């Protein structure tokens, strides 16, 4: 039954019941209206309105659920679907809405894959230029300063050596940025070694304590999934240093029945004061790309816990 006929039928039922009561009930209306007659008429009107409202509430409840779902749906949290209540116009509308979400999620996953692939390509290009162009130029400057310092008199030699140290520190920073943009350790030595190097570098430059628990007997993962795990760990550590006001971060990579689970947990301010910014949205994009499940919850010590669970090779996403 279509929505029109459902609403029409509900109203016809209420009005028919009211007409039947007027026809067969021993009630008359005097002129002027008596108090008891007015009470009976107003009471009947109230009962009719309440019954009509209740019946319309039941009939339009699926549309209200659909409206709430439309306002809260997020393509970065796939799988949100409404149950289809039988058949008819409302059921067809909800079924069409669910099909639309299927298409939008598929298109979002495809576009995210293209965007992240382009982003990684641009990162590799920038890292290569930093290493080859800027790094080599700064190395040449460093060697020139060393030769000049060796031939310079004592007052000038100290200044040149200070310039050497500044240049050497800048060169180290450029190399560190290049490693962050293009994790060569991940390509050469694998995920566990890359996460170990990442956590050591993070602890050195932020002063935070990083505790690691990285399982070595991981199931087979493709290169794309390993890169997703690495980038989510990188973003989780960065958020802990920038926003959480943490003193300690726990980084864990372990084997689970679903595949592989990565967790980054800090002892900072917690999720109650953190807003979902570009970093978390980026992690959700990467999780969507690899068919993984991303959970951001409260940690054991009141901080934030980011957990990414990815299926291993051969398991359905």
TrEMBL record:
Matches recorded under InterPro entries: HAMP_dom (IPR003660), HATPase_C_sf (IPR036890), HATPase_dom (IPR003594), Sensor_HK_TwoCompSys (IPR050482), Sig_transdc_His_kin_sub3_dim/P (IPR011712)
Reaction catalysis annotation: ATP + protein L-histidine = ADP + protein N-phospho-L-histidine
Residue span(s) of domain HAMP: 57-109
Any Pfam family hit: HATPase_c
Primary location class: membrane
Molecular functions per Gene Ontology: ATP binding; phosphorelay sensor kinase activity; protein dimerization activity
EC number: 2.7.13.3
Top enzyme class: transferase
SMART domains found in the cross-reference section: HAMP (SM00304), HATPase_c (SM00387)
One GO CC term, this protein: membrane
Subcellular localization, as worded in the UniProt entry: Membrane
Region forming the signal peptide: none
CDD domains: HAMP, HATPase_UhpB-NarQ-NarX-like
Transmembrane segments: 40-60
Cross-referenced Gene3D superfamilies: 1.20.5.1930, Histidine kinase-like ATPase, C-terminal domain
Keywords of the record: ATP-binding, Kinase, Membrane, Nucleotide-binding, Phosphoprotein, Transferase, Transmembrane, Transmembrane helix, Two-component regulatory system
PANTHER family: NITRATE/NITRITE SENSOR PROTEIN NARX-RELATED (PTHR24421), NITRATE_NITRITE SENSOR PROTEIN NARQ (PTHR24421:SF10)
Protein's name in the database: histidine kinase
Source organism per UniProt: Streptomyces roseolilacinus
